[in-house]
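Hey everyone, long-time lurker, first post.

I ran two proteins through the pipeline my lab uses and got sequence/structure pairs for each. Pasting them in order. The first:
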Amino acid sequence: MNEMSNSVIMSHSLKILIKLVSRKTSLNFTVMVLRAILVTLNKKYDHLKMITLREDEFIGEAIVECNPKIDTLKTDKIIKSLEAIIRVIWVDLGGKAGLFFAKELQMRIGQEYIQLFADHGIDFEVIQLEMSFLRRREKSKKGGADAKHESVLGYTWDSVSKWKYDEKKKTCELFDKFGNKLDTININQIIEDHVRQLTEPEETVSPDVKSQLNRNDIEILKLLYSEDVDMETVSVKLGIDENQIMSTVQKLLRLDFLHHTSDDEVQLTDTAVDYLLNEEGMTKKA
């Protein structure tokens, strides 16, 4: 096999990933998501800062530009960072879509690249088995694959008829079939949280996460730890309305401080309990 430069390896691999993911959405949205993944992962793989992604609207393809300095690095670093990117996308798709992605990636990336990854200890078949295990474990933790979150979000994915992405604000608005706005999502924040969940230990409460907690968030966590409370009780004790409670619950679910035990019940995660014991000085239950 002819020796390939790091920039060629990175460019080819990212273009293949973008092509596969953009089948499910627009090229513009896919490039934006990949950019956010690169930004989050560059905390561990700083060479990802040397990569620029943009779309060429005329030809309808993504352009991957690499700083020439990337070719001075060890190829093993490049392969490991690509593995991390692939894992994030793979887990995010999940289910049948994840399986299809896995097969398509191996088919389209080319045997030469499969061998290159294998030479650096990366086996696509092994990754697929690992990802399948992680998905099963996550479903088990959160109450099974059929758990629905409608009681918290106020809608499900089936309710979403269309979405509108705002390039400047980096947000995505979701609408139902009647044109009513269901939600506004901060895409960069969601992607960063998702990547952190995959790349950081579950028990770790990073300074960044701590800084996102306000007094209402903490008081609700304390109430849930101390007693079995419903929404009305929380509203009375904290003096906040239902919309504020719903918003706080969504935030705590996203930060992995809560998880669903049924359609309309949530429970503190181990991360939340550790936070309350270590940071808020609460007493451990017998």
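...and the second, right after it:
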Amino acid sequence: MTEPFDIKKFFDLSPTALGKSLSIGWKVVLIALVIFFVYRGITANRQKQTQQITVESGGQATIIQKQTSKRFLIPFIECSVGQSNRYDKLETAVKGGIRVEF
């Protein structure tokens, strides 16, 4: 059952009401920041530079530089099916998460 709307409660400035509002507000901000940083980690590409140097006779050097972009956080979902010997039944599982690569 819903509570009827009261304008006095809406503009209540008592310490109890403000404490509840700030507590809920900080939790919402914290959850939003976690979602934002996970999203940034998934979508951001990290630049990786490799350099190969070969020196030939006569003092001639060849330098090859390569830049590759690599994602840091990679989301994944894995599905598996297995047979249990104990109960003779088929088991299925789904795993999901974020893999961190360096």
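Reply from user beta_strand_b:
Welcome! Quick read of the second one: Strands lie at 45-56, 60-71, 73-84, 89-100. The CA atoms of residues 7 and 13 lie 12 Å apart.
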